[in-house]
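Long-time lurker, first post. I've been practising inverse folding by hand and with some scripts of my own, and I keep getting stuck on stretches where the structure tokens seem ambiguous. Below is the full token string for one chain I'm working on. Before anyone asks, I'm not after the true native sequence, just a reasonable design that respects the backbone. If someone could post their per-position residues I'd love to compare against what I wrote down in my notebook.
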């Protein structure tokens, strides 16, 4: 994962905000009041998101043994015993799937094998 620098993100956000403000002013200036409030997701400041690797196994099959430390949208920052990094997974494949929680012997994974 190669996140963009904050300055780049803020610049892009400013461009999008300006364009959306123009549309709102043009079409709904009487009905819409702009707040101009800056907000950032507090979870983005957590150390969970500073040292990450992609979770190498598909989530829609097999057994898994992880603990979700934090979420941003549908991305989960997960901890697993034996892995120093936070593993990141998109939980979209789990939507609508029945899950069974408990203590299970998880399928083995290897970060190195998943790279090739």
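-- Answer (accepted) --
I ran through it position by position. Result:
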């Amino acid at each position: 994962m190669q996140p963009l620098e904050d300055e780049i993100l803020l610049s892009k956000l400013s461009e999008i905000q300006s364009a959306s403000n123009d549309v709102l002013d043009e079409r709904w200036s009487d009905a819409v009041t702009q707040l101009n409030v800056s907000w950032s997701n507090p979870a983005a400041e957590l150390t969970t998101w500073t040292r990450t690797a992609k979770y190498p196994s598909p989530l829609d099959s097999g057994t898994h043994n992880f603990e979700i430390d934090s979420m941003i949208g549908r991305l989960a920052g997960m901890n697993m015993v034996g892995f120093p990094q936070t593993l990141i997974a998109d939980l979209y494949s789990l939507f609508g799937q029945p899950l069974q929680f408990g203590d299970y012997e998880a399928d083995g994974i290897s970060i190195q094998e998943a790279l090739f």
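A couple of notes from the structure itself: The chain is about 25% helix and 15% strand. The first strand starts at residue 52 and ends at 54. Happy to go over any region you disagree with.
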